[in-house]
Amino acid sequence: MTKIPTNWTGRDDAMVEQMIRRGASRRELLKMLMSSGVAAAAGGSLLMRAGAAVAATPVSGGSLKAAGWSSSTADTLDPAKASLSTDYVRCCAFYNRLTFLDEAGQVQMELADSVASDDAQTWEVKLKSGVTFHDGKTLSADDVVFSLKRHLDEAVGSKVNSIAKQMTEISKVDDLTVKIVLSAPNADLPTILSLHHFMIIADGTTDFSKANGTGAFICEAFEPGVRSVAVKNPNYFKAEGPYLDSFEFFAIPDNNARVNALLSGDIQLAASVNPRSMRMLEGQDSVMTSVTTAGNYTNLNIRLDLEPGAKADFVEGMKYLVNREMIQKSVLRGFAEIGNDQPVSAANRYHNPNLAPRAFDPEKAKYHFEKAGLLGTEIPMVASDAASSSVDMATVVQQAGSQIGMNLKVERVPSDGYWSNYWLKAPVHFGNINPRPTPDILFSLLYSSDAPWNESQYKSEKFDSMMVEARGALDEEKRTAMYWEMQEMIANEAGTIIPAYISNVDAVSSKLGGLKANPLGGMMGYAFAEYVWLNA
Amino acid sequence: MMAEVTTTTAKDTPKRKGPGYRFNWVGKIGLAIILFWAVVAVVGPWLAPHPPGEIVDWDYFGPVTKDFWMGTDYLGRDIFSRILMGARYTVGIALAAVTLACTLGVILGMVAAVAGGWFDMILSRLLDAFNGIPSLLFGLVVVAAVGSSIPVLVLTLAAIYMPGAYRFARALAVNVNTMDFVTVARARGEGTPYLILREIFPNILGPVLADLGLRFVFIVLVLSGLSFLGLGVQPPNADWGALVRENIEGLSLGAPAVIFPSVAIASLTISVNMFIDNLPTKIRDRSE
Amino acid sequence: MTNPLVSVRDLRIGATTDAGRKVEIIKGVSFDIEPGEIVALIGESGSGKTTIALSLMGHTRTGCRIDGGNIRLGTSEITAMSERARASVRGTEVSYVPQSAAAAFNPSKRIMEQVIEIAAIHELMPRAEAEKKAVELFRALALPDAEHIGQRYPHQVSGGQLQRLSAAMALIGDPKLVIFDEPTTALDVTTQIEVLRAFKSVMQKGGMAGVYVSHDLAVVAQIADRIIVLRGGEIQEVGSAEQILRAPQHPYTKQLLAAFEPVPHQPVDQPVQAAKPTPVLEVFDLCAGYGPMRDGVPLAKILKNVNFKLERGRNLGVIGESGSGKSTLARAIAGILPAYRGAVMVDGKELKPDLQNRSKDDLQRMQMVFQLADTALNPAHSIGSILARPLTFYEGLRGKAREARVIELLDMVHLPAALRHRLPGELSGGQKQRVNLARALAASPELILCDEITSALDTVVAAAILELLKELQRELGLSYMFISHDLSTVEAICDDVLVMYKGEVVEALPAARMSSEATHPYSRLLISSVPQLDTGWLSGLEQDPELVAQFANR
Amino acid sequence: MPQSLTPWFLVIQRLGIALLTLVIVSFAVFFATELLPGDVAEILLGQAATPEAVAGLREAMGLNEPALSRFVGWLVGLLGGDLGTSYVNKMEVVELISGRLGNSLKLAGVTTLVSVPIALALGIGAAMWRGSLFDRIVSVLTISVISVPEFMVATLAVLIFAVWLGWLPALSYGADVSSLSAMLKAYAMPVITLSFVVSAQMIRMTRAAVIETINTPYVEMALLKGASRKRMVLGHALPNALGPIANAVALSLSYLVGGVIIVETIFNYPGVAKLMVDAVSTRDLPLIQSCAMIFCVSYLSLITLADMIAILSNPRLRR
Which chains touch B (3 or more CB pairs under 8 A)? Predict the structure, then answer.
């Protein structure tokens, strides 16, 4: 468990800031924190201007206004369809999951009392008793069965349909017990159930114009693309929280406008602030920032089944050509950790720290390109604002290429339709992957031979079999070793270049207390509403 | 920006100095700035001290220094170089779009004025209907459909401004068309192409040129508005509007990265306005 | 000896031309006006007559300013006053009757509002009183329905009425001096008489002094006590009306008077190819109109069953007042406005109604010359290229041959060859009209349709154009169809005359015997309404009021 | 003028043309949307758009019907006053739009109330004292405003009034509107920004239109009657310049409904422009269509209104 140390002072705070500004790497920063007696936060999280967090006595009451970065008429209260941060925030406020991940990435029980299995294939979920929905109905196994089975129905359009497919049987045992049988052993099921999409809704719900959940807040108003207003649930089943009487959530897509709204005091939380705005926030007593490095990354994908990626030397060259330090320092303004071309970030307990990032070496890159016979050929790199920072990253790579006579052309394409038209399709393109709680989800989603999002068309039988084996392995040490090896395989063999794990920076009013980082994403893994309070 | 702009060039200067096509000093300053940017657009890439995409400074939103004359941008790239490169795109795209829009609009407008009848009616209605769609939204749809490249930009901008040019040219051409010299030519048996090119066109050229200038200004601004929506030239290059847009976070810091591109845009648009408002009346009002 | 009401001493007015040059347009003019006296300023365009008249109100048009001299009106020194002080004099001491009342009335306000505006501006009297006074003036000006005409909008009354209403507008403030700026020029002759009469009687009753600006000696003769002849911003001659008309001293005055003398037309000797008996132009039951077509008939029918015949080498005059359809006739014949019924035959060959369907040959045979020389020449082309185009178009001439022919054409209309390099804007009105003629001649036509080609020109210049037409006819054996509202012009050049009224030909007769033989009442009215160079003509004129009521366009 | 061409005939003719235009636009918008890559099912699923998932969702949403029949269905519904149901969130389009449209109209209304009187006053003033210092200052100001990108004006306004001075809220929507002063505050920023943007054009056009009528003989006549400059301009020139001024105002105002996307984005104001942008990015056809119709209707009705003002202000056309 991570705790912000009580001897944390404003001076340390300033020192951290200073270091970040000078471009200190994440690692250096952590080293410094260690040396000063601070345990590194498991999620790599850190509250800047941490003074406010010290007075950690929750205060009840008050009304919070928070702004996310995207919202549209596609906003939904249906957890299965949730796709934007806005949706997650709302779902976390109105519903509950069976399990959730804490700041350290450990599975904690929420609606479930226990999630247990002997063989990692047949699972039994025991529910807490006496939990009620907003409409007064008591939570039962039927609700859980309904909520989970929905994901298997294609007409629902669930985002986690492919993950849910492994649940071959979901059945009610008794009023408070549900049995889940998997197609193959998977020790990660408790973690999988903490995904935002697996929120529990009342049996038979089809109308999502209102939210009827068990959550800490009751939905008072919901206007898609505009805002939602929530009031405190007086019958919330948890002993602690929520502290806020009400909170309003909406999106201000323009970064600058979001920051300005925070600075002018119109909102108390501005999610996901562009690091470019940091200088605006510096020296403002009324705001502080919460930085989370959860494992979100923007990566450069080179398809191995198409030219030019079919030439191994091209892929190798590109790995040397990506100036990770410049991407981390200039593009991401230091709010990132340098990545080592594999998807499991330091926030994850299975992260392989021995795998060193590839050093920027244009000469080696040139050697490989020459060997591939591609020096001077125009090669388009497809980037888009849809994959955050990808355009700037592409510029950095393009610039490095032009120094050695490699003609890489940045092709910026519209955000709209990027995921269906370019991502996974173009020979060289950028992608953006949100943090996933387990290596298994990442691997099976992105790197197994039949992965739906196999970004570089990486195919390895050895990798596939290791994945299945690790999934069912209940021996933690063996599992870790296998995951480390698989990370190495990805870094060296796949065509996905992951230059950095991007930190999420939320800017909040200094009156806001209780905000901590979470490996599931910014804003406390989107679940901040029930944990935060407003100091007077 | 405006969905539709029917430009009535105000007659500010009843007095003209000197005979013939001479400008007053305000017009001269305007012309000088326009020419300056035109030259920069052509030779800019050779003047730029750095490639537009090169990150030259670890710092961002850097101040004006002797190495970076206009500071650095959000990535630490040299703004001076980027503005020099951007001139080519801003001036070039706006010029191409305005030329295309006006050429097409003027030709169609003249044909509609001469042909009259249902051709005129249908074309006017169609373009009117098109005018009803806000231009930025139109731009947005285009981005969504075909992405962003220079030809797409030019065509989109031209499409946005063509109906206005059409309307303007048609109104002028209708006036000229009723003049006796056109009737004389028609009575002589001349065909439509002759009427349009030889009789009408020379007499609407002056106001059309003035209109072209004003449209140019709006196109420069809409171009910057489109970059707000993500339709712009491909990185690492950027037009001035995009430079303002991508560095707008620097505004509150007073970063030169946002101020200089804004000044560049304003200097171009204001000078075009100055130039047009002070055009010798001989050119502006020849058909009146 | 009483002091004159107005005295103008050494008035100099300068202007800045479009090109920025400064020129003096009034070069030291001095004259007096006694109280109650009507003085006419007469001259051709550019003589400065309107400029002088406006300067009496302290007003100069854009680009002009008073450079020297002084103007005294009553006790006020106009030239020394501030703009605000001048405004207080305008309307009360001196007022203005504009050339075109139609343009000078604000189209969006009721007439009464505008007539009594002077009283409102200067707070002369309460509104009710002002309206009462206006109605009295309407009566005095012989306006119909004097009680209610003020409630109408300007577009709802006729031009002649509007002109009289503008006089009421000027008189409402009981000024000491009224300036009439060509107030009848835009009117038809039959209307002009009534307006002149009304002006004359109110001026006499009110005992006001007046300045009457005009280019028309015959009109001026009816109303002015004294005439000042102007040319190029200088006074040529001053004298009583009687003296100027009977015994002009200055050669320029004599020239002006000479231009008024009717020159009887000598029919051209029967042309050489008289063997061909077919008339050059023949029109049967021609009907034409404007507006959307319904059942093959346009909404607004203008021409109704016009028939006539024009023999080769002869000239046909078409006279009528505004709205008579005479210009429409020319357009229908030329095919610009396709006739919807009837036939046009040239040289015995029937032409298609629409010019698009006529052959080049048909088009070439018949050419048209328009009234306004300014708008008939493309301002963007040089004279040379304007004349060259028909040569290329009809005859395929190019290069040297074409150039030679252009020079020849210019010579035919008595213009120097060097003129071909100029733009139309640099030519005078007379020169432009000659170029227009030359362009028609370039097609080597047999027939030229002349639509009011002398109406916009000064009398002397117009006379010269008529001379030229006759000369060309003698040399080239042309036929003219000559459209005009001016009887004397038609008499001067035509063999036969058609009198048109409301789209119909009411009478056709030989030009020479028009005055004596016209039988149709409208023809008679028209003929009797033409002002004569005789100071007593208007007072002596008697017209049948019923006839006037039936036909005059008032 | 022939009897049948009365103003009513003109009005009816204009309305008919407007209706026809609407149909053309809806048709064009429909097929433009069809041409866009991706459909609502793919977009909704985003990264999760596997072929099977997309096919399933498409089937569920009824997207497999032919495009034309969907268009006709929508058009028929429209005639019956039914704008259809949003593909994306199954809500009635009417419900989605009504609130947003109200917001847009509120913003447009307040901006109109502020900008039109100011713009007309400045334009007329500049024309009245043509060539004076006032005229020149107005000219320089309008040119400057025209020359600055809108998002720049908006961002600067936020920085100055909300962040630095703290006088006004940075966001308009959802702000406290319980009292009049609070409401004025809430609307101040977008209204200031939009007023800047739309006024410049109106000022220029008004000035040009008035100057044109000042050069007519009837205004000279008023001068010769001894009228003051004020009387000449306000009493004589202005009534006749109403037509062109109304046209300029209509064009500027039509921008306020659909063209304010940048202002809506920066001030987080939920209006129809943003709704349309959302609709386009999710390919939500019924919503796109309905928004496009709204823009078109507002544009056409403003233009038609301007035409009618021109007709009514001209006694020659009015009867």
Answer: A, C, D
Task: State how far residue D148 is from chain B, nearest Cα, in angstroms.
Answer: 6
B189 → closest Cβ in C360, C375, C378? C360
Of the options 3.30.10.20, 3.40.1010.10, 3.90.1150.10, 3.40.50.300, the CATH number for the domain spanning C6-258: 3.40.50.300
Question: B115-143: string of b/e by CB count within 10 Å (b at 16+)?
Answer: eeeeebeebbebbbbbbbbbbbbbbbbbb
* B15 touching C (Cβ < 8 Å): yes
Worst-scoring range by mean pLDDT, A393-397, C37-41, D268-272?
Answer: D268-272
- Name which of B29, B39, B46, B140 is nearest B92 in CA terms: B39
Residue D297 lies in a domain: no
What pLDDT digit, counting tens, does each position of A367-378 carry?
Answer: 999 999 888 888
Residue B77 within a domain: yes
Q: Is residue C133 exposed (0-12), middle (13-18) or buried (19+ Cβ within 10 Å)?
A: buried
ipTM above 0.85, yes or no: no
Task: Specify if A60 maps to a domain.
Answer: no
Tell me which architecture the domain covering C281-378+444-517 has in CATH: 3-Layer(aba) Sandwich (3.40)
Per CATH, C6-258 and C281-378+444-517 having the same topology is answered yes
Nearest CA-CA partner of D284 in A210, A244, C146, A73: A73
Domain span at A30: 10-55
Structural domain count, chain A: 4
B195 DSSP assignment: I
Cβ C106 vs Cβ C87: under 8 Å: no
D132 touches chain C (CB under 8 A): no
A325 has a chain B CB within 8 A of its CB? no
Interface probe for C, chosen from D10, D225, D317 (most Cβ of C below 10 Å), is: D225
Cβ–Cβ contact D281 with B under 8 A: yes
Give the pLDDT score at A169.
Answer: 93
What separation in angstroms does the CA of C396 have from each of B2, C391, C443? Answer: 50, 6, 11
| DSSP character string of chain D | --TT--HHHHHHHHHHHHHHHHHHHHHHHHHHHHHSSS-HHHHHHGGG--HHHHHHHHHHHTTTS-HHHHHHHHHHHHHTT---B-TTT--BHHHHHHHHHHHHHHHHHHHHHHHHHHHHHHHHHHHHTTTSHHHHHHHHHHHHHHTS-HHHHHHHHIIIIIIIS--S-S--TTS--SSHHHHHHHHHHHHHHHHHHHHHHHHHHHHHHHHHHHTSHHHHHHHHTT--HHIIIIIIIHHHHHHHHHHHHHHHHHHHHHS-HHHHHHTT---HHHHHHHHHHTT-HHHHHHHHHHHHHHHHHHHHHHHHHHHHT-TTT--
Candidates D155, D258, D280; nearest CB to B248:
D155
**Phi, psi of A8, rounded to the nearest 5 degrees:** -70, 125
Are B202 and C334 in contact (CB < 8 Å)? no
For residues A106 and A126, membership in a common domain is answered with yes
Minimum CA–CA partner of A451 in chain D: D50
Residues A491, A355: Cα–Cα separation, whole Å: 8
Q: What is the pTM of this model?
A: 0.77
A256 touches D at CB < 8 Å: yes
Structural domain of D141 = 91-283
Residue A35 is predicted with a pLDDT of 40
For A133-152, give one letter per residue: b (16+ CB within 10 A) or e: bbeeeebbbebbbbbbebbe
> Are chains A and C touching, using the cut-off of 8 Å on CB pairs and a minimum of 3 such pairs?
no
Task: Decide if D281 contacts A416 (C-beta within 8 A).
Answer: yes
Instruction: Return the amino acid letter for A283.
Output: G
pLDDT tens digits, C249-288: 999 888 888 877 766 666 655 555 555 568 889 999 999 8
